[in-house]
């Protein structure tokens, strides 16, 4: 895991309550090929650490492929233009970050996520980016209050 410093919010055009974590994750993973090339999906997960860890699903958010102006901004290290009427965003800030080599199965999702729950309370973001017609990048971003 490395530290990631987001200088800008990552904004999403569409967002809806995700419902049950396993169901939302299962639906997303089974429907990955419906994402357009360049598109992105994100599941927000809220966690609380007490005597045990509880995970609660926030939203499932979707992002369209980047426009030419967004690509130009990224390629030239300039601020990305804001998404008009963004419905959800991952706020700028510091995150623990891991690029995943594979997505965990639904049955292994909760144990997999627990290793990222490092504070008393926080949020996890599972980002899945459709890079090419047959390939995806998956990432975990974790934020949390220190113990």
Give a written overview of the molecule.
The protein contains three helices and nine strands, in the order βββαββαββαββ. The protein is of the alpha+beta class and 147 residues long. The protein has one domain (2-144): Multidrug-efflux Transporter 1 Regulator Bmrr, Chain A (Alpha-Beta Barrel), CATH 3.20.80. The chain starts with a strand and ends with a strand. The model has no long low-confidence stretch (mean pLDDT 87).
Short recap of the structure:
By secondary structure, the chain is α+β, with helices and mostly antiparallel strands.
Q: Which helices and strands, and how do they pair?
A:
Layout (H helix, E strand, L loop, with lengths): L1 E5 L3 E3 L1 E4 L3 H10 L9 E10 L3 E11 L4 H8 L12 E3 L2 E8 L8 H6 L6 E12 L2 E10 L3
Antiparallel strand pairs: 1-7, 2-6, 3-5, 4-5, 4-8, 7-9, 8-9
């Amino acid at each position: 895991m490395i530290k990631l410093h987001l200088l800008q919010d990552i904004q999403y055009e569409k967002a809806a309550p995700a419902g049950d974590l396993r169901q939302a994750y299962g639906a997303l993973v089974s429907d990955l090929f419906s994402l357009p090339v360049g598109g992105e999906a994100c599941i927000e997960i809220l966690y609380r650490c007490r005597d045990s860890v509880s995970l609660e699903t926030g939203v499932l958010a979707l992002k369209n492929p980047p426009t030419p102006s967004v690509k130009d901004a990224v390629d030239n290290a300039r601020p990305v233009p804001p998404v008009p009427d963004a419905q959800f965003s991952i706020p700028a800030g510091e995150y623990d970050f891991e690029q995943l080599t594979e997505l965990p199965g639904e049955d292994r999702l909760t144990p997999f996520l627990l290793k990222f729950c490092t504070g008393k309370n926080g949020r996890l973001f599972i980002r899945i980016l459709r890079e090419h017609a047959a390939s995806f990048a998956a990432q975990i971003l974790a934020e949390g209050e220190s113990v």
